[in-house]
């Protein structure tokens, strides 16, 4: 048959780049370099004879031709992916792809996933832990766990946890530090991460507490780094009860206040609307929901 179709790898890269409108994000999703993404897009544009993206210093945007091409190309690529998964899942190892916030992946899902593998030894769970939101509609992920609020366009969603904010610290710090009238350690730094940088202000606002005078803050790029610093007694943090439920239950972190504040966003499990899932994906989803019950908090 004459070669009338572009290289499939070019189309795969185009699908990821069209979904994110970012060479860098597409590169991260595909585990290649941004330069490799750019080269494949240029090759596809040369093959088609049209410009698919407009390049700007701050990123790229789909051209009108690119938008039309994406609308026509992405659905059959999803069908091809689904067909490939169905036939490969009929024997041997079965795979489910999950995109999830790093903090929840490390602190909640990580300690539990081995139990799932014990019951489903032939299943591979591919966990993509990244704070960058992947558009589930145009990606090859089966399931997403998102921190936000409905609606989630093009997705079916179900709530997983009721997440609350509460200041926490290690027992060693609580035993030795002076505490103010609100239970917060005096002279000890507040540990923050860039993703949830406003948690403390939200907790103060809803509890009516004033910001402590001369409060020192230390900011980290990852929530897991905040947790590690807090566990070592270097300061206190605002804990998300859904993420830290195990550490709180184990007594490794203890609440500094009995006042808990409902988080502005919550964790939801998402799947593509009107898109059938494989049997093993359904099984994995049921397992996640079971892990998040019965009391509506993690574990």
TrEMBL record:
MF terms (GO), sorted A to Z: DNA-binding transcription factor activity; sequence-specific DNA binding
Keyword DNA-binding on entry: yes
Keyword list, A-Z: DNA-binding, Transcription, Transcription regulation
Domain of life (superkingdom): Bacteria
Signal peptide as annotated in the record: none
Every HTH lysR-type domain range: 6-63
Pfam family membership, one: LysR_substrate
Family: Belongs to the LysR transcriptional regulatory family.
Protein name in the entry: HTH lysR-type domain-containing protein
Organismal lineage: Bacteria, Pseudomonadati, Pseudomonadota, Alphaproteobacteria, Sphingomonadales
């Amino acid at each position: 048959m004459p070669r009338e179709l572009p290289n499939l790898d070019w189309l795969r890269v185009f699908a990821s780049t069209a979904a994110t409108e970012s060479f860098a994000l597409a590169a991260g999703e595909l585990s290649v370099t941004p330069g490799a993404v750019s080269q494949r897009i240029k090759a596809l544009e040369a093959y088609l004879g049209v410009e698919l993206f407009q390049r700007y210093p701050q990123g790229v945007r789909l051209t009108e031709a690119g938008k039309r091409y994406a609308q026509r190309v992405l659905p059959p690529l999803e069908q091809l992916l689904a067909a490939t998964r169905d036939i490969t899942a009929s024997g041997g190892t079965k795979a489910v792809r999950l995109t999830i916030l790093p903090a929840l992946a490390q602190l909640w899902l990580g300690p539990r996933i081995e139990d799932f593998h014990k019951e489903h030894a032939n299943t591979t769970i591919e966990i993509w832990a990244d704070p960058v939101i992947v558009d589930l509609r145009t990606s090859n992920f089966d399931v997403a766990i998102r921190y936000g609020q409905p609606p989630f366009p093009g997705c079916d969603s179900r709530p997983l946890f009721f997440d609350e904010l509460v200041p926490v610290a290690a027992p060693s710090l609580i035993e030795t530090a002076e505490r103010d009238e609100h239970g917060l350690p005096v002279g000890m730094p507040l540990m923050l991460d860039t993703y949830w940088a406003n948690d403390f202000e939200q907790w103060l606002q809803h509890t009516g507490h004033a910001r402590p005078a001369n409060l020192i803050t230390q900011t980290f790029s990852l929530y897991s780094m905040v947790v590690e610093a807090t566990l070592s007694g270097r300061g206190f943090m605002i804990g998300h009860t859904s993420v830290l439920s195990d550490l709180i239950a184990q007594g490794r972190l203890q609440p500094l206040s009995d006042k808990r504040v409902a988080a502005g966003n919550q964790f939801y499990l998402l799947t593509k609307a009107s898109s059938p899932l494989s049997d093993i994906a359904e099984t994995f989803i049921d397992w996640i929901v079971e892990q998040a019950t019965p009391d509506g908090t993690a574990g």
